[in-house]
Amino acid sequence: MKRLALRGLTGRCRILIGESARNLAAYAPKNRTLVVTDRKVYGLYRSLLRGWDVHVLDRGEKTKTLATVERLQRALLRKGYDRGATLVALGGGVVCDIAGFAASTYMRGIRFGFVPTTLLAQVDAAIGGKNGVNLDRFKNVIGLFSQPDFVITDPGFLATLPAREVRNGLAEVVKSAAIADVKLFHFLEENADRALALDLKILGRLIERAAGIKVRLVARDERERGARALLNFGHTLGHAVEKTTGLSHGAAVSIGMAAAARLSAAWGLLQVREARRLVGLLDRLGLPTRAPEDKRRILAAIDKDKKKDARLVRFILLRGIGSAVIRPVRLDGLKEILNDLC
Q1: Does residue 168 have an active-site annotation?
Q2: What is the total count of domains within the chain?
Q3: How much is the pLDDT for 307?
C-alpha cells in the first residue's frame, strides 16, 4: 500500500492507495458512521456494506444539487448523528462531492472520508478537498474547500467499470501527465492498451503518479490562487462542452485539452509535434478531440464559468509535455479557437 499525505489549511488527508475497502472499519467506526452511495454502487457492493448504516442516492450529475444535500443532512439529523459522526462516500465523483459538501456544512462540519469507486474519482475527484454541487446545470457553483480525513483507493473496484468510465478516468491521467510529468505521459503512451484492458498493475501505477501530482499542487495552493489552477488544463472549455453537449466529463475534458494544445502551438509555446502527440494519445484512448456543438452555446457557458474574471478567462496552456502555464485569454478571443474545435 502507498500512503500519501495532503496537509492543507482545512485539514490533513491520508490517501491510501492499494488499501482494501473491506478495511473501512479501521478508519471509520461502524456505530457512528453513515455511508453514502448511489443505487448502482449499492447494487454491486451490497455485501461490502453489510452491517453499515447506508444512505442511497439516485445516480448521475442531476443528483448534485442542494436538494440532495438537504435530504442527506435530514437523514443524518433523523438518525441522531451529532458532531462526533463520520460520513463516508462510497462511489464516484458525484457521490464524493455531495457527501463532502454535506459533511462540511452539517453542524458546521463533521468528519468525512471517501472510498472512490471510479478511476476518475481515484485520480482526481476524491483528492484535493473541493466539495460542491451544481446550480442550474452550472458545475460546482456552490461549494467549499474542506479536506476529507482519508481516501481509500482500492483498485479492485475498477474491475467492474464499463469502458466509458475507464476512458473518463484516463483523460484525467493524461491531464496530470501533460501539466507536470513527462515520464508519466510516456508511460501512458507505452501502456495505453493495457490500461484500457484494465490491467490493475498498470492502473495502480497511473493512480499513484497522478494522485501524487494532485497532492503536490494542492499542498502548495489549496484554495486555487495559483499553482492548483494548472489542474484545470482542458477544463475551461471542457466544462462548457460537458454542459452544452451532455458528453461525459472525461470526454469533454479531452476535447478541452486538445483545443488547449492547439492554442499552445498556435501561440508558439508548444511544438506542433508535441500538440499532435497529445491529441494522438487521446485518440488512442478512444477519447474525442473535437466538439459536436454550436460554438455560440459553448461561449455562453464559458461566460458563466467561475474561473472567469470579467472578460478574461484563465486558460491553462502547455510549454511542453509535462510543463504548463496560466494565461489570460479574452472571451472574444476564444471564437477563433472554437472555429477549429467545433
Answers
A1: no
A2: 2
A3: 53
Is position 186 annotated as part of the catalytic site?
Answer: no
Could you tell me if 23 and 95 lie in one domain? yes
Q: Is 232 a catalytic residue?
A: yes
Q: How far apart are CA 141 and CA 18, in angstroms?
A: 32
Domain assignment of residue 87, given as a range? 2-160
Residue of 249, 262, 274, 293 marked active site: 249
Q: Where are the beta strands (DSSP E) in 235-322?
A: 308-309, 312-320
What amino acid occupies position 277? R
The answer on 131 and 20 residing in a single domain is yes
- 304 given a catalytic annotation: no
Q: What is the pTM of this model?
A: 0.91
For range 154-170, the mean pLDDT? 93
Distance CA 34, CA 53 (A): 5
| CA separation for the pair 57, 70 (Å, rounded) | 12
Q: Are residues 150 and 171 in the same domain?
A: no
Q: What is the mean pLDDT of residues 176-183?
A: 98
Strand 308-309 with 86-91, pairing:
unpaired
Q: Are residues 15 and 112 in the same domain?
A: yes
- Catalytic position from the list 175, 239, 262, 295: 239
The catalytic residue among 19, 172, 222, 293 is 172
Reduce the DSSP state of residue 150 to 3 states and report it.
Answer: strand
Q: Quick check: is 2 catalytic?
A: no
